[in-house]
Amino acid sequence: MLAPNAVILWMSFNKPVGKFDYTWNKFSLSAWKNPCASSEMCHSLGLSLQIGVVATIGATVLGTMIAFAMVRHRFRARSGINALLFLPMAAPEVVMGATLTALFFNTVGPGSLGFWTITIAHVMFCLSYVVVTVKSRLAGMDPTLERAAQDLYATPFQTFMKVTLPLVAPGIAAAALLSFALSIDDYIITVFTAGNLETFPMYIYGSVQRSYPAQIDVIGSMMLLGTMAIIAFSQLLGRARTARK
Amino acid sequence: MSTLTDPATRPPAPEPQPDHKAKRNWTPWVLLLPGLLWLIVFFLVPILTSVSASVQTGNFDDGFKVTWDWGNYYHALHDYRTQYWHSGIYSVLTTVFCLALGYPAAYFIAFKGGKYKSLLMALVIVPSFTSFLIRTIAWKTILADNGTVVHALNKTGVLHVTSAMGWTVGDHVLASPAAVVCGMVYNFLPFTILPLYTSLEKIDPRLHEAGQDLYCNAFTTWRRITLPLSMPGVIGGTLLTFIPAVGDYINAQLLGNPNTNVVGQKIEDLFLRDTQGYPVGSAISVVMMVATLVLVMTYIRKAGTEDLI
Known about the structure:
- By secondary structure, chain A is mostly helical.
- Chain A contains eleven helices and no strands.
- Chain B has a two-stranded antiparallel sheet with strand order 1-2.
- Chains A and B meet through α1, α3, α4, α5 and α6 of A and α2, α5, α6, α9 and α12 of B.
């Protein structure tokens, strides 16, 4: 599983010979010294990060609200809503992209595709994943804790802020991370909703046809090392917490 | 202390469970509405728009009109038969290979992983945090003509056989169906392993002991106990692999050749490059959506776990 990642890390130290470097040439740090040599690439990376942040916030807020409603309340139409939440996960991405384009063509016109249409699409496909993640955390939570807070004369709002939210926070954080990862990485739906904009995955995709700078491998390696650091850090944090107990 | 618990001095505590029947509770709807509206407007409505677009004719200068021209469907079904075939065969092969590779891996991690369980699972998941496009392109390096893999396959004569079968081209692996399936298996393997691992991990190892106590050999224990109990994981894993695999065209584009075209590429072409193509593109998307849904629903029915998702 890790082989391609090792290759990416390895190739990021490659000294480029031509436009396409899929074979090893010579050790060099040039790509690491100057990760933004291609300004287009860093521009597209910035755009992807912006979309990722906005879409993550949108999907996390909306998805958490749905998760609360689904777990804490009983009402009719639950199974219908469950189906509606499941469908975006069961539809092939290319179909979602294509149908969204059809909608945008028919309403706002092909010219107005851009930042907001991408973000709307990303919120849409992240939403179900947020609901699933937060729901499982909420379902695993002891409801008597909330009742205890109410017995101690906390208002519903206080109960939510002081008891429920801190307990569900890890689930919400996981959901947000997942959305961000999904949004940053998405190519298929983005290409259908992007118009003239170019996000980072679109840049990589295009670069296979144009020229493939070693800087892409540098960014890839940074992503990998970054996630590994975050995971190691959270493991250490978890260990410190259990040690304190 | 006694005054606190004295019911007379204590003001009535809030009702722990408010009576839902007495007063209609609007809270869940307030919570649900924004998200559901989002899904309806940007997921359901687009599908309906596509259905309507698929019976339109026209061009971008004069606009498209709904003419109930079913010819788009004729084109959608007739002109792209090879692409449907490719998409179908690649995604089925991917699912089968993922299951064949993922089941033993998940089994090993769940039962033999010991204290390294979470580390091993991290090794499965962590690679997915690098852009999947970069990882797919890395396969170009791995499968390159002067790379170790291709050398080894050439030495052992494997490539002769696979080329004769049409899976590889000459003594290259890249730009062939084999490379496409290889990339897809790699990309979707975590989606198979994760649900498998979750359901295998839940199985009580004492059940294995019980099986052995009743003189089952290892294989029978697996077939009679482990496999049935891990079925939800098998179904979940295959679905999570098959559905994205049907729509995937990245691997076909990056690792394949012009003869490995899949439906996704055609939809993208019709929408983003061919200015007249979008009604036919919509028709293909509708066909694909319906086909996937029917397949998935039948599979879930057959497998008998409707409450899986």
